[in-house]
Amino acid sequence: MAIKQPETLNPFAEAVAQFDAAAERLKLSPELRAILRAPKRELTVNFPVRMDDGRVEMFTGYRVQHNINRGPAKGGIRYDANVSIDEVRALAMWMTWKCAVVNIPFGGAKGGVIVDPRQLSRGELERLTRRYATEIAGVIGPESDIPAPDVNTNPQIMAWIMDTYSMHKGYSVPAVVTGKPLSIGGSEGRMEATGRGVYVVTREACKALGIEMKGASVVVQGFGNVGSVTARLMHEAGCRVIALSDVYGAIHNPDGIDVKLALRFVQEHGTLKGLPGATPIDGKEALELPCDILIPAATEGQITEQNAHRIKAKLVVEAANGPTTTEADAILHARGIAVIPDILANAGGVTVSYFEWVQDLQHFFWAEDEINLRLESVMTRSFAAVQAKRDLENCDYRLAAYLLAVARVAEATQVRGIYP
Ligand code: NAD
Q: In a designed cystine with 198, which of 20, 319, 330, 343 is the match (CB 3.0 to 4.6 A)?
């Protein structure tokens, strides 16, 4: 479960502020800024679910499509008690820029249901998923909007969405979602793609900043899909992963944690808490440990103006979406700490989702090696483009990534024109 954020922290305001900084630098017209700020389509659904004890409970869900000028909308579905329309709007906007920064032909979308899925039985989770999928079926589809997993959703949930959508159509439509199990048209390498992309971008950033990866000390916040794969790949690359955290707390070992042992421990115990050979510490404290590389891979709003002064990393790589607030970003920049922005750092997931969608549409599947090679090439090329922009514009990585992404979406919007 994500920690409740301060009332004042509105992720959509953060997303708009980041866009505005790029729009200003690109000297976009006021009309174009207004178009690109606004989510194109927002659907709110309130729906009943029959619980195991016979009661009927009401749930609220959303699907927001921010911009579809470069292609069908693409973005994950999040199940969390803290989901709000502003969070979904922000995540949808970030997806637009993310697809543009790695130059894949998708627009941005996001979905969410206000629910703590850990309180549900498997049957309740399936009924909630199938009903939510039915409620949003009018706006999703392989040509229009393709969901994927996000926080607290997984391949099984994608399978239920694919099946529900297919039942309504009367035939199988694998390309309606990505992040599916392999047996129904999922892609090799998708489960690891986001973490692998984070790793590739971190490696490239280390090269650019003169940080030696071998022996570099690393802190990873969040040990779910993204955090655990990233931590494992960093460990395999010879880094010293000195702290890991999950929603229950953090663990620390200055000599390095055995990440493979941590993975097995979490599979058995559901948490990092109690991992032998590591000291339990407070989750917030972990972010402030002296280290070379800090990788927030949990949720939004983790590095704020309250703790940004105490961050001691040389490099922050945003594996999570929106982990740094605008104020904190300015503080880190002023202190000379490089921040690789989420829209670049975690774009590996959507990149392999794109490969999955292409494979589904072509009914022709690629081997894992090929997927990883193509992912490596997209992430390396995208990092190089952002680095070149940063050098040219003499700005930070976030603004450089936004300048590239926003310019691509602005161009597509302009060339298509205003209908009618
Ligand atoms: P997940 O549900 O698999 O894992 C989330 C992890 O974060 C869990 O270990 C949880 O315990 C931990 N966590 C939650 N709140 C925390 C807190 N306050 N402090 C420390 N740990 C906390 O989710 P995920 O798929 O790994 O996603 C993580 C982040 O990456 C999200 O911001 C998501 O939007 C982003 N992301 C995910 C993907 C993907 O392919 N899964 C792609 C791009 C971006």
A: 319
Partners of 296 in the β-ladder: 221
Torsion of CA 208, 213, 215, 217, to 10 degrees: 70
Q: In a mutational test of the pocket of ligand 1, which residue from 151, 223, 281, 355 has the highest number of ligand atoms less than 8 Å from its CB?
A: 151
pLDDT digits (tens, 9 = 90+) for 244-294: 999 999 999 999 999 999 999 999 999 999 999 999 999 999 999 999 999
**What superfamily does domain 39-176 belong to in CATH?**
Leucine Dehydrogenase, chain A, domain 1 (3.40.50.10860)
Q: Name every protein residue with a CB atom under 6 angstroms from any ligand 1 atom.
A: 2-3, 149-152, 194, 221-227, 245-247, 283, 297-299, 319-321, 346, 349
Domain edges within the chain: 39-176, 193-345
pLDDT bracket for residue 194 (50, 70, 90): very high
Strands 249-252 and 240-246: antiparallel
Q: Look up residue 351 and give its two tokens.
A: 């990149």
Q: Decide whether 39-176 matches 193-345 in CATH topology.
A: yes
Smallest CA separation from ligand 1 atom 13, residue = 247
Which of 53, 36, 74 has its CA nearest to residue 347? Answer: 74
CB atoms under 10 Å from CB of 264, counted, come to 12
- pTM equals 0.95
Residue with CA at minimum distance from ligand 1 atom 31: 320
Catalytic residues: 110
* Among candidate residues 91, 96, 59, the one with its CA nearest the CA of residue 77: 91
| Sign of the C-alpha dihedral computed for residues 97, 245, 289 and 278 taken in this order | negative
5 has a pLDDT exceeding 60: no
232 touches 259 (CB < 8 A): yes
CA distances from 113 to 62, 152, 223, 359 (A): 6, 10, 22, 28
Q: Could you give the CA distance from residue 56 to residue 49 in angstroms, rounded to a whole number?
A: 6
| CATH top-level class of 193-345 | alpha beta
